[in-house]
Design brief:
Blueprint (H helix, E strand, L loop, with lengths): L7 H18 L3 E5 L2 E4 L6 H19 L11 H22 L5 H25 L1
Antiparallel strand pairs: 1-2
Helix pairs in contact: 1-2, 1-4, 2-3, 3-4
């Protein structure tokens, strides 16, 4: 994936939108087992994933819009990159733990991976 033609702000806003779409995917069908189905919000740990996605998306959107962030000693994109990697791990663990995976978990994986790639691209620009 070549991200050279996209500006830094576009990458950051794209990552923030991916986190918004990840939050929406939490409420879609993640698991189907016969007549029983469940969403990502049926998991006991979904509020943690929601908070992580809000924090990561908020950091990226605030940085793209030029707002001052309370994170002074750390690079905000490194924090957002770490948080998005936690979301990818969260979805992968869920996928390997259950049977009957449905479309919501695939969308959550897609949005978290794309958000992580965009954020990591910005992080690499910052460290050069």
């Amino acid at each position: 994936m070549d991200l050279q033609g996209i500006s830094r702000e576009q990458k950051e806003l794209g990552a923030a939108v991916c986190m918004l779409l990840f939050i929406i995917s939490l409420f879609l069908k993640w698991q189907t087992f016969g007549p029983i189905s469940g969403s990502g919000a049926d998991l006991g740990s979904w509020p943690l994933a929601l908070l992580i996605a809000l924090a990561a998306g908020g950091i990226m959107a605030a940085d793209a819009l030029g707002m001052d962030l309370p994170i002074r000693r750390m690079n905000p994109t490194s924090v957002a990159t770490y948080l998005m990697s936690l979301l990818v791990f969260y979805v992968l663990v869920f996928m390997f733990a259950i049977d009957g995976i449905s479309y919501g978990v695939w969308l959550a994986l897609l949005f978290s991976v794309v958000g992580l790639l965009l954020t990591f691209s910005v992080f690499r620009q910052d460290t050069r």
